[in-house]
Amino acid sequence: MKLGLVLEQLHRDEDDLAQHLLRVSERHKVDHEIYHLARDLAKWSQQHVREIAAIAGRYGRELDPEPKGENTLLEKIREKGSELVGRDAEAGLLLLRDLREAYIKACGVSADWELVAQAAQGIKHMDLLEVAQRCHAQNLRQMKWANGKLKESATQILVS
Amino acid sequence: MGRIDRIAEPWGTRTPYGSGETWPVRVDTHLAEGVDAESVDCWVQTASILHSNGDAMDIAVKDNRMVGVRGRASDRVNHGRLGPKDLYGWQANSSPDRLTRPLIREGGKLVETDWETAMDRVVARSKALLAEQGPSALGFYTTGQLFAEEYYTLGTIAHGGIGTNHVDGNTRLCTATAAEALKESFGCDGQPGSYTDVDHADVIALYGHNVAETQTVLWTRMLDRLAGPNPPKIICVDPRLTEVARAATVHLAPRPGTNVALMNAILHHIIANGWVDQDYIQAHTVGFQDLEKEAAKYPPALAAEITGVPAGKIEEAAQILGHAERLLSTVLQGFYQSNQGTAAAVQVNNINIIRGMLGKPGCGILQMNGQPTAENTRECGADGDLAAFRNWSNDAHIKDLARVWNVDPMSIPHYSPPTHLMQMMRYAEDGSIRMLWVSGTNPAVSLPELRRIRSILAQDRLFLVVQDIFLTETAQLADVVLPAATWGEKTGTFTNADRTVHLSEKAVDPPGEARPDLDIFIDYAHRMGLKDKDGEPLVKWDSPESAFEAWKECTRGRPCDYTGITYGKLRGGSGIQWPCNEENPDGTERIYADGKFWAHPEYCETYGRDLITGAPVDPTEYKALNPEGRAIIKAAEYVPPHELPSQEFPLQLITGRTLFHFHTRTKTARAPELQAAAPDVWVEVSAHDAGTYGFAEGDLAEVATPRGSVQAKVRIGGIRDGVVFLPFHYGYWDTPGRHEPDGAGRAANELTITEWDAASKQPIFKTAAARISKVRSGDGPAPAPTNTASAPAGDFPAEARTRGIPSALADEEIPGQGTHGPADGNGGSGTDEREAQL
């Protein structure tokens, strides 16, 4: 069975998404909604990391239950940097770049969860299916958030 | 006719009535010293402009001057009553420091000029920016205090003429969540309830709604029910011991920021006990399963830990709500301006929906607003929505609006939701909005984190136009100041929180060269040469009434249908509730009767948003979820506030209003009776916290958050332990700093956090971590009113209690009861005693 491999991949991708969302938050502290939401949504992915690790043992994978932590010093430096460039219109382009990346990473995670859900149905593992459905629903909200923010922010940044 | 001090007795004398009866008339009058009703030249019809209740009144005019006001007995809203702000606030109109000439900035200073020069400057900058950057460089920030005709004209100019997406009102601060909560639950804005529901309700639940101070006449109506036979039960959710809380059957005082946890627990208990209307849910709603699933996660015991409200109290409230036969729910800033505003307000809607309590007498929801004309800002497309509740993500709606305006659909920006205010400030900060036109509002005092706001507004690269009646803190930062006429000096219509439309007629001439806002906007449109697609002027109207007729056409067939209303119909009688059209020629008291909603995918104003992330719902998704246009039951998980108390900032700060002032006091501080009732800022703490910090009543304290500090005298009151309250009215125009602190801060918004609800984009004024410390001992009580939520908790000197200055005496006339006093036993305290106090 190759399910363990998929879970390992998903574990990595969720962790990566959480890290990216935290970076987006730090880098765009002056865009207050993005700062707060990206942090909140990173927590969802961090929780998914824990849940994947908790269930992956049954599929032959020992995965770290702890999501990668934040580098607090680095975070502070980024936040300060964000405040310094907050009045520079070029920072807008970086924001679009970061949101695009968040969207793509969330899409990747979404595909991963679909694979897991398909497999779980195939082997009738209802608890795995339950985890997949619950986490995937949150993942889709992360995706829509990144996409929505991207659309909402693009025009002003690109035409000004 | 009784004489009464309406500062000491803000709600006046009781006229009790029972369930299903008509609220008795009581006519309130206040005239200037030496004027009596017989010597008044004429009475001119209007409604109140200092809160959202829409109390109908007449302005007394003598020798072309305002000399007083009188409530309109025939009006459905107030049955003759007026609140203290209505009785005294009109005097601000004739204040000697009104703006009477345009000002422009020359060599760093504002100097007087003529209209030609001022408008030329605005138009020249607009045209230059349009040529250089395009419409994205221009933003318009308006208010909740102009008239419908003026908002519609502004919205038409900005959306249809300039083509900018950056239009919002200060309604963003007060009513954005009301609108969003209605849109989320019903697919469209529009107040489900009516004030007449107070006459019928057996339970009135007020969520974060200190109605006793925000809409005093609506509270008077509730007090009269409470004083009559079979009074309603009152549920109050508020961390302060408000007058509503004092009158409540159950008072829940949650920790700030935990409203969603509280609401989910109430819903949990209601659903678990089966106190729901399954037939209604089956026939008229979608989404109930999601709510069942979410609410199941919040047993009262768990919510008690989060909210600090005992589980027993949560269950008691749920039991009353669950057994109500006619439930009226009302919501205001305690929910809207707190953490998760929209999610919490939507859960209030859910209670009425799952109990099938909509569209029937006594069964209603009032998602309130704070400002007199906020509803019009929402309807007319001046607040980040499109005119007449059109859906920006529905191409057919854009096409229809383009037809009304006779412009190309592509010239109406609809590529994303209209830009909300806090985002506009961000664009001004990053330099991509380069001209901001502020009309009738004072962001330099009313927005969160004032140091940041001042630094944005003061930038050289931002061209700031301010249109107002006084030289506010914001106006002092402007490049061009346009002097406006106000209420009583111009004609127009406005709509209150229960959809009642009133006509407000011109009573006197504006001072000096001040001009009606409508004339200023139209003048701008013509000078800019804004045209429709046939080369005709875009703005085709030239007077209030012709503007109203144009607005009516825009509303035809939409939920806020005004087509059956005319100025003539509004003159003389009562205000009229929209929708008013051929089918409903006398207006509509309650919408959503028979479980019919405006939520059909082709008709709805919005497809909604994710209540947590704020992401817009995709049209296809909405169509799949709600193809028949039913009410939408939306659940939401509790998310803790982002700024929680810490060791450094162990308390929570909330801000709010007092009964005697409005906004940044531009008018109310210029009415002597109101100013004397609440002359300066104060901070409220509980007796327990006062003990912890060693405060006595009246001590000077410093309140600080990570963003700044404010000094204020301490009022020891009935607020929840661990929470401090600051009124938000006090800025700097009457201090040496004039537009900023000169030494210690005074404005509550020095302290508030820059954060907003992801769904409604309303700033969060009521969840900040704070600390408090003593500066020095006081020499008398704090300057806080004693007959409101800021009432002192312990012993208090009788002579320092709130009472009016001599001119505060007003008249009360209760038909069939010429005078009244202690002997008539109506529950009000006697006029004799009150006069004796003066």
Task: Walk me through what this model shows.
- The complex is a heterodimer of chains A (160) and B (838).
- Chain A is mainly α.
- Chain A has helices spanning 3-27, 32-56, 72-85, 91-122, 126-159.
- Chain A has one domain (3-159): Ferritin (Up-down Bundle), CATH 1.20.1260.
- Chain A has 5 helices and no strands.
- In chain A, helix 1 (3-27) runs antiparallel to helix 2 (32-56).
- The mean pLDDT of chain A is 91.
- Chain B is α/β, with parallel strands linked by helices and 838 residues long.
- Chain B has a 7-stranded mixed β-sheet with strand order 7-6-18-17-16-8-9, sandwiched between helices. A 6-stranded antiparallel β-sheet of chain B has the order 1-29-2-5-4-3. In chain B, strands 24-26-25-28-23-27 form a 6-stranded mixed β-sheet.
- Chain B is globular.
- The model of chain B is unreliable at 819-838 (pLDDT under 50).
Domain unit count of chain A? 1
Shape of chain A: elongated
Q: List the secondary-structure elements of chain A in sequence, H or E.
A: HHHHH
**Which two protein chains have the largest interface (Cβ within 8 Å of the partner's Cβ), and how many residues from each?**
A-B, 30 and 30 residues
CATH architecture of chain A: Up-down Bundle
Give the termini distance of chain A in whole angstroms: 53 Å
What is the arithmetic mean of pLDDT of chain B?
A: 96
Helix content of chain A: over 70%
The name of the CATH topology of the largest domain in chain B is Rossmann fold
Q: And the CATH topology of chain A? A: Ferritin
